[in-house]
Every structure is written in C-alpha cells, then in structure tokens.
Amino acid sequence: MKRLGFLLLLLLAFPVLALPAAALEPDEVLADRVLEQRARDLSQEIRCVVCQNESIDSSNAEIAKELRLLVRERLTAGDSDAQVLDYLVARYGDFVLLRPPMKSSTYLLWFGPAIVLLLGLIGVFFFFRRQSPAALTPAALSAEEEQRLSRLLEDGEGAGGTGGEGKTGRS
Amino acid sequence: MTQRLLFLLPVLLFVVVAGYFLWGLSPDRDPQALPSGMIDNPTPNFDLPPVPGLEQPGFASADLGQGEVVMVNFFASWCVPCRAEHPFLTELAEETGVPLYGINHRDKPEDAAAWLEELGNPYSRIGADSGRGAVEWGVSGVPETFILDGEGRIR
Fold it and tell me: Taking CB atoms and an 8 Å limit, are B37 and A89 in contact across chains?
C-alpha cells in the first residue's frame, strides 16, 4: 500500500510520464501496430483546424476525430505519409500543417529570427568597436601641435618651477 | 553624413513597426479568416444520401458541373449562424434562380426536418453528411457556402 502511494506520488511529480496526452478513442485504433504508429506520428503534425493550435492527436473536437479516422483510412488504403498530408493540404491549405512548409511565402517566417539575430550581432559589433581601446586612443599630435607643446613646456620651465604656478600667473 | 543617416534608423524602425501594428489593429482584418484551399478546384468526390424524412434527393459529385451554376451550402439545425444566414440564402436562391443545394452536416434527420419546417426550405437537393463530406470539401465549420460554375469548379 505504501509502495502504491509512493508510485502515485512519483507519477504526480512527473506528469509527463503519467499522460501521453491523446484524444484518441479506443475504437479508432488500428489493429496493425506499424500503421497505427504512423497514424499517430502523422496526427501530431496535423492541425485541428477549428482549435487554432492543437494537433488532431490531442484534440477532442469532432473534426479532429473525423480527420484521425481519415488519416487511418488512407494509410490503410496504402497512401504514403506525404500523400495523406497532400490530401489534407489540398482541402484545408497549409494551415492544416502544424509545421509550416518551406517555400517562398514562408521564407520570412523561417529566416526572420535569424535575420533579426544577425542585425543584432551587427549592432553589437559596431557598439563594441566604437568602445575599443584603439578607437579611444587619441590620434598622434601633428607637427604643429608638437611645436606648440614644446613651446609651452619651455615657457613653463622658464617661468620658474612647476606648471601649477602658471595657472595663477595669468590673473 | 552617415552619422546623420544612422540617426534616422530608429525613426525608420518605428515607422515599420507602427505600420505593422496598424495593419494588425485594422478592424477590417479578421485574424481568424481562413481562405478555403478549394477555390478553383474541381468538385471533390462525394456521394451523399438524402436526409431521411425529407423529400429532396441527396446528391453526389456527378450531379454538379452539369453546365449550370450551383450554390452548395453546409448547414445544420444546431448551428446558430446558419439560422441567421438562412433568410438571406432563401432570398438569394429565389431572386437569382440559382439552385441551392444543401448539405446537412452532423445533424439528426428529425431536427433538420423540423428546422426546415420552421424556417422554410430553399434547397432543391439536400445531402446528409455524417462528417466525411465536410472533410472532402475542406470545411472546418458550418455554415460554409460554395459557388460552383457549370464545369463543377469551385469559385
């Protein structure tokens, strides 16, 4: 009894283990286990068109049940997985696929995140390049500036002693 | 010069993002809209029996595309929007003279009969669909209406 309680607790702790969330009803399951597995895998790729974002495998909607039966019927009739999906796409459009296909109208969808990341990286690159020590080091003095500097230094020494006095000396 | 252009970048980004949001907020846009994948396709394969208790015959793919434009309407007695569009469909069928075929979707025959009794019956043929018919037509929910040309192509 204690052991059973422990097992229950374990199941509660790992809900993923406890429920293979499927809306599949027993009478829908095919006798052929290989076909059934293919049907299950396919069902998880097909959107229940009235539920916005649920596969027909996990939806209880009537249309999902109808589509599950249809998938099994077609597989039993000898269709390939691709043929089943094509059949559904012809009727419901790409919306019926949970994973959007790669084609010219979906390039932005597929590559958009990568493009945004790239733009971000370029931004970061320029940001750090501006702050790099090389960019912060002032340019070398020109010949004219060099001359002025040495003149100033000489003047300071000539006025006697430290540069500090030069500050007050003016006023 | 490049420096100045760089300052324009955030403004440009703002305009693009704001434009996108404006499009998203537009009251004319229906985010749930689902264009039918069936447009321009020939009639799907189906063969629907009549609804028991109704005098209208059922129909099959072969009955469509006989050189005549036809409207095909999916309806059900349990479907509220169907009730709302029913007077319009009736009027449309009467005014244009275009035959209106009905597909009674997932309904009890007696409920369908009572519904048509109450609201009037504009359909010249009615097929009973247990669910598969809707899938063949790419229908995800009732009501949905198709217009077919004389060759049986969905328009």
Answer: yes
**Beta carbons of B14 and B8 less than 8 angstroms apart:** no
Structure-token match 């002032």, residue found: A138
Copy the structure tokens of residue B121: 């019956």
Are B106 and A62 an interchain contact pair (Cβ–Cβ within 8 Å)?
yes
Has this prediction a pTM greater than 0.80? no
pLDDT interval class at B155 (50, 70, 90): confident
B104 confidence band (pLDDT: 50, 70, 90)? very high
Domains defined for chain B, CATH in brackets = 47-148 (3.40.30.10)
* Secondary structure, 3-state, A94-125: HHHECCCCCCHHHHHHHHHHHHHHHHHHHHHH
On whether the CB atoms of residues A98 and A45 are closer than 8 A, the answer is yes
pLDDT reported for residue A12: 63
For residue range A100-120, what is the model confidence (pLDDT) as tens digits? 888 888 888 899 999 999 999
Tell which of A91, A94, A108, A130 to mutate to test the B interface (max B CBs under 10 Å): A91
What pLDDT is attached to residue A171? 46
Chains A and B form CB pairs within 8 A to the count of 40
Above 0.90 for ipTM, yes or no? Answer: no
Spatial separation of the C-alpha atoms in residues A89 and B38, rounded to whole Å: 10
- Transcribe B40-102 into DSSP letters: TSBPPP-EEPBPTT-SS--EEGGGS-SSS-EEEEEE-TT-HHHHHHHHHHHHHHHHH---EEE
